[in-house]
């Protein structure tokens, strides 16, 4: 297939300001890695009380709108004008914003005419989700990237980390390999620039990452093109690993506790998602300020760190992270060693071992193989529950499993770290409790949060299915794929578009919950569905 995106492969220099140095310290990287002459626009810092007044008032409806808006003149000038006018009788905040800012386009996707086959729509829809490198305003929160990339859709107008893995899987299915490789190159560029892959390419995302799927992305591309095609990214993969390990280069011999790395009393060490700042996220400022107001003042800073850790997990929000299993006010994510993160770090270590072996660096290959074997043992030791036969998150403060059942239990199967007996028991549990009419449900608890019952999400379907196939659970995997695709096709025929998430329990109802309306587009759903169509076809052929 001819590439329809005119992909330009190039390199640019990031614009990184003094404020970012805090982020770099968090990531464990030196200031001299960055251009001292460059700058990044942080609306929450440069707009001062104007930012607070807009976000608290919610005058624009969606908190993300203002942090994505571009001032028409310098922030200093806009702020000066605001201070001069705000107390005058005729002042209107919304009018002021529209006069002094370029607001982002309305987050909507026009459905247009239906394709006869959903697969055709998915292959053709990438062009609506691709964004090309462009010189942004110096007062844009968007961070320039060297290559075109896929956005999720709707209000998500940038390249998101873990979304992109599933989009890349779909691009490879569509034959858009150059675009997929360009996105991998964007990942490498972000690691080179900041020491890690941020949640997304926005300044306000630079205090956190997302589930580390860079290794999985390299493996997906290598499955089609061979290891030689991704070996160039070995330095960046190792650098990302050090971000999550807080710079502990000596492990597995010795570990020093850090932001992400937790050292247990017996010397074992594992990792957590973390929040770097004790303040509300810029893109959710008003609501997080409101949530925290119900807590004693002394607890609010840590509460914001817990919320940021949840956002780094990608599961914002879910009963996984609630101490009482029901209420967001009890979020305690920084106390949790998540089973998905343990699994993905095993995958990184194992991939580093394979890639270093490919380069004939036996010393490093052996080092990372030993690290992966250590983590695999700890995965079973700390995350597996013999009573239920499931993998769970581990509360390291209380020294026990959280007891929260979720689709995260499929991650050890996805990365190939589960024992055969554990894979058997997990697959049985998924079949009995998680497989619903439209696919796998995220959790078994209905809290009103979007990553809980009754919602199902494309990435969790993919993780679950690939994990099952890894352990030869073909019947269950095929059943799950068929149910998910049937639901997606039903919604597409009714709505003419793909969704961010779906109600998999009652397929007559739309998904809901969360802090914003259900979005359409949708990058990772498109990618997963394309992969499922191929996998199902292969399974059908194999069964004949």
Q: What form results from the Cα inertia axes? A: globular
Helix content: 40-55%
Which structural category do the helix and sheet elements fall into?
A: mainly alpha
Task: For the record, give the distance between the C-alpha atoms at the N and C termini, rounded to a whole number.
Answer: 30 Å
Explain how this protein is built.
This protein has helices at residues 20-27, 43-46, 48-57, 63-68, 75-85, 93-100, 118-129, 161-174, 177-194, 214-225, 234-244, 285-293, 297-313, 339-358, 362-383, 411-414, 420-434, 458-470, 474-495, 523-543, and strands at residues 70-71, 101-102, 130-131, 149-150, 261-263, 269-271, 336-337, 384-385, 390-391, 394-395, 400-401, 435-436, 439-440, 455-457, 498-499, 501-503, 520-521. α9 (177-194) packs antiparallel against α10 (214-225) and α14 packs antiparallel against α15 (362-383). The chain has a domain at 33-102. By secondary structure, it is mostly helical. The protein starts with 19 loop residues before the first helix and ends with a helix. Strands 7-10-11 form a three-stranded antiparallel sheet. Strands 1-2 form a two-stranded antiparallel ribbon. Strands 3-4 form a two-stranded antiparallel sheet. A hairpin with a 5-residue loop joins β5 and β6. The model is unreliable at 1-37 (pLDDT under 50).
